[in-house]
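[worker-b] picked up task from shared queue
[worker-b] task type: protein-ligand structure
[worker-b] ligand name resolved to adenosine-5'-triphosphate; SMILES cross-checked against name lookup, match
[worker-b] sequence length check passed
[worker-b] input payload:
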Amino acid sequence: GIKLEEVTKIYESGEIKTYACKNMNLEIKDGEFIVVLGPSGSGKSTMLNIISGLDTPTSGKISIDKDIISDMNTKELTKFRRNNLGFIFQQYNLLQTLNVAENVEVGREVGIDPFEIDEVLEQVGLLDQKHKYPYQLSGGEQQRVSIARAVVKKPKIMFCDEPTGALDEETAKEVLSVLKKLNEVYKTTLIIITHNPSIGMMADRIIKLNSAEIVEVKENKNR
Amino acid sequence: GIKLEEVTKIYESGEIKTYACKNMNLEIKDGEFIVVLGPSGSGKSTMLNIISGLDTPTSGKISIDKDIISDMNTKELTKFRRNNLGFIFQQYNLLQTLNVAENVEVGREVGIDPFEIDEVLEQVGLLDQKHKYPYQLSGGEQQRVSIARAVVKKPKIMFCDEPTGALDEETAKEVLSVLKKLNEVYKTTLIIITHNPSIGMMADRIIKLNSAEIVEVKENKNR
Ligand SMILES: Nc1ncnc2c1ncn2[C@@H]1O[C@H](COP(=O)(O)OP(=O)(O)OP(=O)(O)O)[C@@H](O)[C@H]1O
Ligand SMILES: Nc1ncnc2c1ncn2[C@@H]1O[C@H](COP(=O)(O)OP(=O)(O)OP(=O)(O)O)[C@@H](O)[C@H]1O
Ligand SMILES: [Mg+2]
Ligand SMILES: [Mg+2]
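[worker-b] inference finished, payload out:
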Protein backbone atom coordinates (compact mmCIF):
# COMPACT_ATOMS: atom_id res chain seq x y z
CA GLY A 1 0.00 0.00 0.00
CA ILE A 2 0.87 3.70 -0.17
CA LYS A 3 1.34 5.75 2.98
CA LEU A 4 1.67 9.52 3.41
CA GLU A 5 2.65 10.86 6.84
CA GLU A 6 2.53 14.60 7.57
CA VAL A 7 3.46 15.43 3.98
CA THR A 8 4.01 19.13 3.38
CA LYS A 9 5.19 20.99 0.27
CA ILE A 10 6.00 24.67 0.45
CA TYR A 11 7.18 26.80 -2.46
CA GLU A 12 9.16 29.90 -1.53
CA SER A 13 9.68 32.77 -3.92
CA GLY A 14 11.37 35.68 -2.18
CA GLU A 15 8.87 36.91 0.41
CA ILE A 16 6.04 34.71 -0.78
CA LYS A 17 5.40 31.28 0.75
CA THR A 18 2.88 29.05 -1.07
CA TYR A 19 1.60 25.86 0.58
CA ALA A 20 0.89 23.33 -2.13
CA CYS A 21 0.45 20.47 0.38
CA LYS A 22 -0.14 20.88 4.11
CA ASN A 23 0.24 18.03 6.64
CA MET A 24 -1.29 15.41 4.41
CA ASN A 25 -1.95 12.00 5.95
CA LEU A 26 -3.34 9.19 3.83
CA GLU A 27 -3.21 5.43 3.32
CA ILE A 28 -4.11 3.72 0.06
CA LYS A 29 -4.49 -0.06 -0.10
CA ASP A 30 -3.15 -2.24 -2.91
CA GLY A 31 -5.61 -2.49 -5.76
CA GLU A 32 -7.70 0.44 -4.58
CA PHE A 33 -9.37 2.85 -7.03
CA ILE A 34 -9.05 6.37 -5.65
CA VAL A 35 -10.40 9.60 -7.13
CA VAL A 36 -8.96 12.97 -6.09
CA LEU A 37 -11.23 15.98 -6.44
CA GLY A 38 -10.68 19.64 -5.60
CA PRO A 39 -10.68 23.18 -6.98
CA SER A 40 -8.06 24.50 -9.36
CA GLY A 41 -4.86 25.17 -7.39
CA SER A 42 -5.83 23.04 -4.39
CA GLY A 43 -2.73 20.80 -4.58
CA LYS A 44 -3.89 17.71 -6.48
CA SER A 45 -1.06 17.54 -9.04
CA THR A 46 1.51 18.38 -6.39
CA MET A 47 0.26 15.60 -4.09
CA LEU A 48 0.34 13.13 -7.00
CA ASN A 49 3.88 14.16 -7.97
CA ILE A 50 5.07 13.70 -4.38
CA ILE A 51 3.42 10.29 -3.86
CA SER A 52 4.99 9.05 -7.09
CA GLY A 53 8.45 10.45 -6.42
CA LEU A 54 8.36 12.93 -9.30
CA ASP A 55 8.70 15.66 -6.71
CA THR A 56 10.12 15.77 -3.17
CA PRO A 57 8.20 16.94 -0.09
CA THR A 58 9.41 19.83 2.08
CA SER A 59 8.76 17.54 5.07
CA GLY A 60 6.97 14.29 5.86
CA LYS A 61 7.28 10.66 4.76
CA ILE A 62 6.03 8.72 1.74
CA SER A 63 6.28 4.94 1.57
CA ILE A 64 5.10 2.45 -1.03
CA ASP A 65 5.10 -1.02 0.60
CA LYS A 66 8.66 -1.50 1.97
CA ASP A 67 10.16 1.37 -0.07
CA ILE A 68 10.54 4.78 1.57
CA ILE A 69 10.11 7.07 -1.42
CA SER A 70 11.01 10.21 0.51
CA ASP A 71 14.47 8.76 1.34
CA MET A 72 15.43 7.89 -2.24
CA ASN A 73 17.87 9.80 -4.39
CA THR A 74 17.16 10.80 -7.99
CA LYS A 75 18.67 7.63 -9.46
CA GLU A 76 16.70 5.35 -7.13
CA LEU A 77 13.47 7.24 -7.77
CA THR A 78 13.91 6.99 -11.54
CA LYS A 79 14.46 3.23 -11.29
CA PHE A 80 11.53 2.79 -8.90
CA ARG A 81 9.14 4.75 -11.11
CA ARG A 82 10.21 2.94 -14.23
CA ASN A 83 9.69 -0.49 -12.70
CA ASN A 84 6.50 0.12 -10.77
CA LEU A 85 4.54 3.18 -11.77
CA GLY A 86 2.48 4.38 -14.74
CA PHE A 87 1.70 8.03 -15.41
CA ILE A 88 -0.85 10.03 -17.34
CA PHE A 89 0.16 13.66 -17.06
CA GLN A 90 -2.07 16.71 -17.21
CA GLN A 91 -0.06 17.94 -20.22
CA TYR A 92 0.38 14.60 -22.07
CA ASN A 93 4.22 14.80 -22.34
CA LEU A 94 4.57 12.87 -25.59
CA LEU A 95 7.95 12.63 -27.32
CA GLN A 96 7.52 14.84 -30.38
CA THR A 97 10.09 13.00 -32.51
CA LEU A 98 8.47 9.58 -32.05
CA ASN A 99 5.22 8.47 -33.65
CA VAL A 100 2.22 7.04 -31.77
CA ALA A 101 3.41 3.41 -31.76
CA GLU A 102 6.94 4.44 -30.76
CA ASN A 103 5.66 6.61 -27.90
CA VAL A 104 3.68 3.62 -26.58
CA GLU A 105 6.71 1.35 -27.14
CA VAL A 106 8.74 3.56 -24.81
CA GLY A 107 6.25 2.72 -22.06
CA ARG A 108 6.21 -0.97 -22.93
CA GLU A 109 9.96 -1.65 -22.81
CA VAL A 110 10.07 -1.60 -19.05
CA GLY A 111 7.09 -3.83 -18.29
CA ILE A 112 7.48 -7.33 -16.83
CA ASP A 113 4.33 -8.67 -18.51
CA PRO A 114 3.27 -5.85 -20.84
CA PHE A 115 0.31 -5.68 -23.19
CA GLU A 116 0.78 -5.72 -26.95
CA ILE A 117 1.04 -2.25 -28.51
CA ASP A 118 -1.74 -2.85 -31.04
CA GLU A 119 -3.97 -4.14 -28.27
CA VAL A 120 -3.79 -0.94 -26.19
CA LEU A 121 -4.01 1.28 -29.27
CA GLU A 122 -7.19 -0.58 -30.22
CA GLN A 123 -8.55 -0.01 -26.69
CA VAL A 124 -8.08 3.76 -26.89
CA GLY A 125 -9.36 3.91 -30.48
CA LEU A 126 -6.09 4.92 -32.13
CA LEU A 127 -4.99 1.80 -34.03
CA ASP A 128 -5.27 3.51 -37.41
CA GLN A 129 -3.28 6.55 -36.20
CA LYS A 130 -0.25 4.51 -35.08
CA HIS A 131 2.14 6.05 -37.59
CA LYS A 132 1.25 9.67 -36.90
CA TYR A 133 3.39 12.09 -34.92
CA PRO A 134 2.03 14.05 -31.93
CA TYR A 135 1.80 17.32 -33.91
CA GLN A 136 -0.53 15.53 -36.31
CA LEU A 137 -3.00 14.59 -33.60
CA SER A 138 -5.93 16.38 -32.03
CA GLY A 139 -5.81 17.29 -28.32
CA GLY A 140 -7.90 14.30 -27.35
CA GLU A 141 -5.88 11.95 -29.57
CA GLN A 142 -2.65 13.06 -27.86
CA GLN A 143 -4.22 12.47 -24.49
CA ARG A 144 -5.18 8.95 -25.56
CA VAL A 145 -1.64 8.15 -26.71
CA SER A 146 -0.39 9.15 -23.29
CA ILE A 147 -3.01 6.83 -21.76
CA ALA A 148 -1.94 3.92 -23.96
CA ARG A 149 1.72 4.52 -23.06
CA ALA A 150 0.94 4.45 -19.33
CA VAL A 151 -1.33 1.39 -19.50
CA VAL A 152 0.83 -0.82 -21.74
CA LYS A 153 3.40 -1.82 -19.10
CA LYS A 154 0.70 -3.01 -16.63
CA PRO A 155 2.16 -0.99 -13.74
CA LYS A 156 1.62 -1.72 -10.03
CA ILE A 157 0.20 1.78 -9.49
CA MET A 158 -1.31 4.13 -12.11
CA PHE A 159 -1.25 7.88 -11.50
CA CYS A 160 -3.66 9.77 -13.78
CA ASP A 161 -3.83 13.57 -13.78
CA GLU A 162 -7.02 14.59 -15.60
CA PRO A 163 -6.90 11.60 -18.02
CA THR A 164 -10.17 12.59 -19.73
CA GLY A 165 -10.00 16.41 -19.59
CA ALA A 166 -9.69 16.80 -23.37
CA LEU A 167 -12.12 14.02 -24.31
CA ASP A 168 -15.78 13.98 -25.29
CA GLU A 169 -18.17 11.88 -23.19
CA GLU A 170 -18.04 8.86 -25.50
CA THR A 171 -14.26 8.69 -25.72
CA ALA A 172 -13.91 9.39 -21.99
CA LYS A 173 -16.07 6.33 -21.26
CA GLU A 174 -13.89 4.11 -23.45
CA VAL A 175 -10.73 5.31 -21.77
CA LEU A 176 -12.15 4.89 -18.27
CA SER A 177 -13.19 1.31 -19.04
CA VAL A 178 -9.57 0.61 -20.03
CA LEU A 179 -8.41 2.01 -16.68
CA LYS A 180 -11.12 0.17 -14.73
CA LYS A 181 -10.13 -3.10 -16.41
CA LEU A 182 -6.53 -2.57 -15.30
CA ASN A 183 -7.80 -2.08 -11.76
CA GLU A 184 -10.31 -4.94 -11.66
CA VAL A 185 -8.49 -7.59 -13.69
CA TYR A 186 -4.84 -6.78 -13.01
CA LYS A 187 -5.28 -5.30 -9.50
CA THR A 188 -3.47 -2.09 -10.46
CA THR A 189 -3.85 0.58 -7.78
CA LEU A 190 -5.55 3.43 -9.62
CA ILE A 191 -5.33 7.09 -8.56
CA ILE A 192 -7.22 9.54 -10.77
CA ILE A 193 -7.31 13.33 -10.43
CA THR A 194 -10.39 14.65 -12.16
CA HIS A 195 -12.99 17.40 -12.25
CA ASN A 196 -15.55 14.90 -13.51
CA PRO A 197 -17.74 13.84 -10.57
CA SER A 198 -19.12 10.84 -12.49
CA ILE A 199 -15.64 9.31 -12.40
CA GLY A 200 -15.83 9.77 -8.62
CA MET A 201 -18.86 7.49 -8.62
CA MET A 202 -16.80 4.63 -10.10
CA ALA A 203 -14.13 4.77 -7.39
CA ASP A 204 -13.69 2.94 -4.07
CA ARG A 205 -12.91 6.17 -2.24
CA ILE A 206 -13.04 9.89 -3.00
CA ILE A 207 -10.38 12.20 -1.57
CA LYS A 208 -11.28 15.88 -1.55
CA LEU A 209 -8.63 18.59 -1.41
CA ASN A 210 -8.99 22.27 -0.65
CA SER A 211 -6.24 24.85 -0.16
CA ALA A 212 -3.43 22.27 0.05
CA GLU A 213 -5.22 20.05 2.59
CA ILE A 214 -7.15 16.80 2.52
CA VAL A 215 -10.56 17.96 3.72
CA GLU A 216 -12.67 14.86 3.15
CA VAL A 217 -12.23 11.13 2.56
CA LYS A 218 -15.41 9.37 1.50
CA GLU A 219 -16.07 5.65 0.99
CA ASN A 220 -18.20 4.70 -2.00
CA LYS A 221 -20.65 2.28 -0.45
CA ASN A 222 -22.32 1.32 -3.73
CA ARG A 223 -19.19 -0.36 -5.11
CA GLY B 1 -19.95 38.47 -39.82
CA ILE B 2 -17.86 35.37 -40.53
CA LYS B 3 -18.46 33.28 -43.65
CA LEU B 4 -17.10 29.85 -44.59
CA GLU B 5 -17.70 28.57 -48.13
CA GLU B 6 -16.86 24.97 -49.07
CA VAL B 7 -13.93 24.93 -46.65
CA THR B 8 -11.86 21.77 -46.86
CA LYS B 9 -8.63 20.79 -45.09
CA ILE B 10 -6.77 17.66 -46.10
CA TYR B 11 -3.55 16.40 -44.53
CA GLU B 12 -1.42 14.15 -46.71
CA SER B 13 1.28 11.92 -45.29
CA GLY B 14 2.70 9.66 -47.97
CA GLU B 15 -0.16 7.33 -48.91
CA ILE B 16 -2.48 8.49 -46.17
CA LYS B 17 -5.03 11.29 -46.73
CA THR B 18 -6.76 12.65 -43.62
CA TYR B 19 -9.78 14.95 -43.98
CA ALA B 20 -9.76 17.35 -41.03
CA CYS B 21 -12.49 19.58 -42.58
CA LYS B 22 -14.79 18.57 -45.45
CA ASN B 23 -16.87 21.07 -47.44
CA MET B 24 -17.79 23.22 -44.47
CA ASN B 25 -20.33 25.97 -45.04
CA LEU B 26 -21.26 28.32 -42.21
CA GLU B 27 -22.24 31.91 -41.45
CA ILE B 28 -21.77 33.53 -38.04
CA LYS B 29 -23.31 36.93 -37.29
CA ASP B 30 -21.56 39.73 -35.42
CA GLY B 31 -22.00 39.39 -31.70
CA GLU B 32 -23.21 35.79 -31.89
CA PHE B 33 -22.29 33.23 -29.21
CA ILE B 34 -21.54 29.91 -30.92
CA VAL B 35 -20.61 26.60 -29.30
CA VAL B 36 -18.87 23.88 -31.30
CA LEU B 37 -19.33 20.31 -30.11
CA GLY B 38 -18.06 17.02 -31.52
CA PRO B 39 -16.05 13.89 -30.75
CA SER B 40 -12.29 13.86 -30.33
CA GLY B 41 -10.66 14.18 -33.76
CA SER B 42 -13.78 15.46 -35.51
CA GLY B 43 -12.11 18.68 -36.78
CA LYS B 44 -13.09 21.32 -34.22
CA SER B 45 -9.61 22.77 -33.58
CA THR B 46 -8.77 22.62 -37.28
CA MET B 47 -11.96 24.50 -38.22
CA LEU B 48 -11.22 27.14 -35.56
CA ASN B 49 -7.64 27.56 -36.77
CA ILE B 50 -8.81 28.03 -40.36
CA ILE B 51 -11.56 30.55 -39.54
CA SER B 52 -9.08 32.62 -37.53
CA GLY B 53 -6.30 32.48 -40.12
CA LEU B 54 -3.94 30.46 -37.94
CA ASP B 55 -4.09 27.75 -40.58
CA THR B 56 -4.87 27.79 -44.31
CA PRO B 57 -7.56 25.67 -45.99
CA THR B 58 -6.77 23.19 -48.77
CA SER B 59 -9.71 24.76 -50.66
CA GLY B 60 -12.64 27.05 -49.98
CA LYS B 61 -13.11 30.64 -48.85
CA ILE B 62 -13.14 32.31 -45.44
CA SER B 63 -14.20 35.94 -45.01
CA ILE B 64 -14.58 38.12 -41.94
CA ASP B 65 -16.69 41.15 -42.92
CA LYS B 66 -14.90 42.72 -45.95
CA ASP B 67 -11.62 40.82 -45.35
CA ILE B 68 -11.01 37.63 -47.31
CA ILE B 69 -8.90 35.66 -44.81
CA SER B 70 -8.13 32.86 -47.27
CA ASP B 71 -6.46 35.35 -49.64
CA MET B 72 -4.11 36.89 -47.07
CA ASN B 73 -0.40 36.23 -46.81
CA THR B 74 1.35 35.42 -43.52
CA LYS B 75 2.16 39.07 -42.77
CA GLU B 76 -1.41 40.25 -43.41
CA LEU B 77 -2.85 37.39 -41.33
CA THR B 78 -0.59 38.19 -38.38
CA LYS B 79 -1.65 41.85 -38.48
CA PHE B 80 -5.32 40.95 -38.86
CA ARG B 81 -5.27 38.50 -35.93
CA ARG B 82 -3.42 40.90 -33.71
CA ASN B 83 -5.86 43.74 -34.33
CA ASN B 84 -9.12 41.84 -34.28
CA LEU B 85 -8.99 38.41 -32.73
CA GLY B 86 -8.54 36.88 -29.29
CA PHE B 87 -7.48 33.27 -28.72
CA ILE B 88 -7.68 30.73 -25.94
CA PHE B 89 -5.76 27.68 -27.12
CA GLN B 90 -6.29 24.05 -26.12
CA GLN B 91 -2.69 23.99 -24.81
CA TYR B 92 -2.53 27.44 -23.15
CA ASN B 93 0.60 28.67 -25.00
CA LEU B 94 1.91 30.94 -22.25
CA LEU B 95 5.33 32.55 -22.60
CA GLN B 96 7.46 30.71 -20.06
CA THR B 97 9.89 33.56 -19.46
CA LEU B 98 7.20 36.11 -18.58
CA ASN B 99 5.18 36.15 -15.39
CA VAL B 100 1.37 36.18 -15.19
CA ALA B 101 0.97 39.98 -15.43
CA GLU B 102 3.48 40.18 -18.27
CA ASN B 103 1.76 37.39 -20.21
CA VAL B 104 -1.53 39.32 -19.94
CA GLU B 105 0.27 42.57 -20.84
CA VAL B 106 1.37 40.98 -24.14
CA GLY B 107 -2.32 40.57 -25.00
CA ARG B 108 -3.21 44.08 -23.86
CA GLU B 109 -0.64 46.04 -25.89
CA VAL B 110 -2.58 45.63 -29.11
CA GLY B 111 -6.04 46.54 -27.90
CA ILE B 112 -7.79 49.78 -28.93
CA ASP B 113 -9.77 50.07 -25.69
CA PRO B 114 -8.32 47.34 -23.48
CA PHE B 115 -9.26 46.37 -19.95
CA GLU B 116 -6.89 46.97 -17.04
CA ILE B 117 -4.61 44.01 -16.26
CA ASP B 118 -5.57 43.86 -12.59
CA GLU B 119 -9.24 43.95 -13.56
CA VAL B 120 -9.08 40.83 -15.75
CA LEU B 121 -6.80 39.01 -13.30
CA GLU B 122 -9.39 39.71 -10.60
CA GLN B 123 -12.12 38.31 -12.88
CA VAL B 124 -10.29 35.00 -13.38
CA GLY B 125 -9.29 34.80 -9.70
CA LEU B 126 -5.54 35.21 -10.20
CA LEU B 127 -4.80 38.69 -8.84
CA ASP B 128 -2.56 37.38 -6.06
CA GLN B 129 -0.63 35.15 -8.49
CA LYS B 130 0.36 38.01 -10.79
CA HIS B 131 4.08 37.70 -10.16
CA LYS B 132 4.32 33.95 -10.67
CA TYR B 133 5.75 32.26 -13.74
CA PRO B 134 3.80 29.64 -15.74
CA TYR B 135 5.87 26.74 -14.31
CA GLN B 136 4.76 27.82 -10.84
CA LEU B 137 1.09 27.51 -11.67
CA SER B 138 -1.36 24.63 -11.62
CA GLY B 139 -2.93 23.42 -14.89
CA GLY B 140 -6.11 25.34 -14.24
CA GLU B 141 -4.23 28.48 -13.22
CA GLN B 142 -2.30 28.42 -16.49
CA GLN B 143 -5.52 28.04 -18.41
CA ARG B 144 -6.95 31.07 -16.62
CA VAL B 145 -3.91 33.22 -17.46
CA SER B 146 -4.43 32.34 -21.11
CA ILE B 147 -8.08 33.41 -20.73
CA ALA B 148 -7.12 36.73 -19.14
CA ARG B 149 -4.59 37.37 -21.93
CA ALA B 150 -7.22 36.77 -24.62
CA VAL B 151 -9.96 38.82 -22.93
CA VAL B 152 -7.89 41.87 -21.97
CA LYS B 153 -7.71 43.43 -25.44
CA LYS B 154 -11.52 43.30 -25.92
CA PRO B 155 -11.24 41.64 -29.35
CA LYS B 156 -13.90 41.71 -32.08
CA ILE B 157 -14.03 37.90 -32.15
CA MET B 158 -12.95 35.47 -29.43
CA PHE B 159 -11.88 31.93 -30.37
CA CYS B 160 -11.83 29.58 -27.38
CA ASP B 161 -10.61 25.98 -27.70
CA GLU B 162 -11.70 24.09 -24.57
CA PRO B 163 -11.37 27.16 -22.29
CA THR B 164 -12.59 25.27 -19.20
CA GLY B 165 -11.15 21.78 -19.81
CA ALA B 166 -8.75 21.94 -16.87
CA LEU B 167 -11.09 23.75 -14.47
CA ASP B 168 -13.38 22.59 -11.69
CA GLU B 169 -17.08 23.47 -11.92
CA GLU B 170 -16.82 26.56 -9.73
CA THR B 171 -13.86 28.09 -11.56
CA ALA B 172 -15.36 27.15 -14.95
CA LYS B 173 -18.50 29.13 -14.07
CA GLU B 174 -16.46 32.21 -13.16
CA VAL B 175 -14.51 32.05 -16.40
CA LEU B 176 -17.62 31.56 -18.51
CA SER B 177 -19.28 34.58 -16.92
CA VAL B 178 -16.24 36.65 -17.97
CA LEU B 179 -16.65 35.39 -21.55
CA LYS B 180 -20.42 35.92 -21.52
CA LYS B 181 -19.93 39.48 -20.28
CA LEU B 182 -17.60 40.16 -23.21
CA ASN B 183 -20.29 38.87 -25.55
CA GLU B 184 -23.30 40.62 -23.96
CA VAL B 185 -21.76 43.95 -22.94
CA TYR B 186 -19.05 44.42 -25.58
CA LYS B 187 -20.74 42.52 -28.43
CA THR B 188 -17.70 40.29 -28.95
CA THR B 189 -18.47 37.38 -31.28
CA LEU B 190 -17.77 34.32 -29.14
CA ILE B 191 -16.86 30.88 -30.55
CA ILE B 192 -16.25 28.18 -27.96
CA ILE B 193 -15.16 24.59 -28.60
CA THR B 194 -16.10 22.47 -25.63
CA HIS B 195 -17.04 18.98 -24.46
CA ASN B 196 -19.21 20.53 -21.75
CA PRO B 197 -22.84 20.42 -22.92
CA SER B 198 -23.94 22.92 -20.25
CA ILE B 199 -21.89 25.58 -22.03
CA GLY B 200 -23.89 24.65 -25.13
CA MET B 201 -27.03 25.70 -23.27
CA MET B 202 -25.68 29.25 -22.81
CA ALA B 203 -25.04 29.78 -26.53
CA ASP B 204 -27.15 31.27 -29.36
CA ARG B 205 -26.40 28.35 -31.65
CA ILE B 206 -24.75 24.94 -31.35
CA ILE B 207 -22.66 23.60 -34.24
CA LYS B 208 -22.04 19.84 -34.18
CA LEU B 209 -19.11 18.27 -35.99
CA ASN B 210 -18.48 14.64 -36.86
CA SER B 211 -15.72 13.18 -39.03
CA ALA B 212 -14.62 16.56 -40.44
CA GLU B 213 -18.13 17.69 -41.35
CA ILE B 214 -20.74 20.04 -39.89
CA VAL B 215 -23.57 17.60 -39.19
CA GLU B 216 -25.99 19.79 -37.25
CA VAL B 217 -26.68 23.47 -36.58
CA LYS B 218 -29.17 24.10 -33.78
CA GLU B 219 -30.74 27.35 -32.62
CA ASN B 220 -31.08 27.81 -28.88
CA LYS B 221 -34.66 29.03 -28.58
CA ASN B 222 -34.51 29.71 -24.86
CA ARG B 223 -31.95 32.52 -25.18
N1 LIG C 1 -0.77 17.93 -39.23
C1 LIG C 1 -1.66 16.91 -39.32
N2 LIG C 1 -1.38 15.83 -40.10
C2 LIG C 1 -2.27 14.80 -40.19
N3 LIG C 1 -3.46 14.75 -39.57
C3 LIG C 1 -3.78 15.80 -38.76
C4 LIG C 1 -2.91 16.93 -38.59
N4 LIG C 1 -3.50 17.80 -37.72
C5 LIG C 1 -4.68 17.25 -37.37
N5 LIG C 1 -4.85 16.04 -38.00
C6 LIG C 1 -6.01 15.16 -37.88
O1 LIG C 1 -7.17 15.93 -38.21
C7 LIG C 1 -8.28 15.46 -37.43
C8 LIG C 1 -8.96 16.63 -36.75
O2 LIG C 1 -8.11 17.18 -35.75
P1 LIG C 1 -8.62 18.32 -34.76
O3 LIG C 1 -7.44 18.71 -33.91
O4 LIG C 1 -9.28 19.42 -35.53
O5 LIG C 1 -9.73 17.56 -33.89
P2 LIG C 1 -10.61 18.08 -32.63
O6 LIG C 1 -12.03 17.97 -33.01
O7 LIG C 1 -10.09 19.39 -32.16
O8 LIG C 1 -10.32 16.97 -31.53
P3 LIG C 1 -10.12 17.05 -29.91
O9 LIG C 1 -11.49 17.18 -29.34
O10 LIG C 1 -9.49 15.71 -29.62
O11 LIG C 1 -9.21 18.21 -29.61
C9 LIG C 1 -7.74 14.42 -36.46
O12 LIG C 1 -8.06 13.12 -36.96
C10 LIG C 1 -6.24 14.62 -36.48
O13 LIG C 1 -5.56 13.40 -36.26
N1 LIG D 1 7.01 25.86 -8.55
C1 LIG D 1 6.01 26.48 -7.89
N2 LIG D 1 6.25 27.67 -7.27
C2 LIG D 1 5.26 28.31 -6.61
N3 LIG D 1 3.99 27.86 -6.48
C3 LIG D 1 3.69 26.68 -7.09
C4 LIG D 1 4.66 25.94 -7.83
N4 LIG D 1 4.05 24.82 -8.34
C5 LIG D 1 2.77 24.85 -7.92
N5 LIG D 1 2.54 25.97 -7.18
C6 LIG D 1 1.27 26.36 -6.55
O1 LIG D 1 0.84 25.27 -5.75
C7 LIG D 1 -0.60 25.21 -5.75
C8 LIG D 1 -1.06 23.81 -6.08
O2 LIG D 1 -0.74 23.51 -7.42
P1 LIG D 1 -1.26 22.15 -8.10
O3 LIG D 1 -0.68 22.13 -9.48
O4 LIG D 1 -0.94 20.98 -7.23
O5 LIG D 1 -2.85 22.37 -8.14
P2 LIG D 1 -4.00 21.45 -8.78
O6 LIG D 1 -4.91 21.08 -7.68
O7 LIG D 1 -3.39 20.36 -9.61
O8 LIG D 1 -4.78 22.48 -9.73
P3 LIG D 1 -5.46 22.28 -11.21
O9 LIG D 1 -6.77 21.61 -10.96
O10 LIG D 1 -5.61 23.73 -11.64
O11 LIG D 1 -4.52 21.50 -12.06
C9 LIG D 1 -1.08 26.27 -6.73
O12 LIG D 1 -1.54 27.40 -6.00
C10 LIG D 1 0.14 26.62 -7.54
O13 LIG D 1 0.10 27.99 -7.93
MG1 LIG E 1 -3.32 19.95 -11.65
MG1 LIG F 1 -9.07 20.03 -30.42
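[worker-b] attaching auto-annotations
[worker-b] Chain B has seven helices and ten strands.
[worker-b] releasing lock
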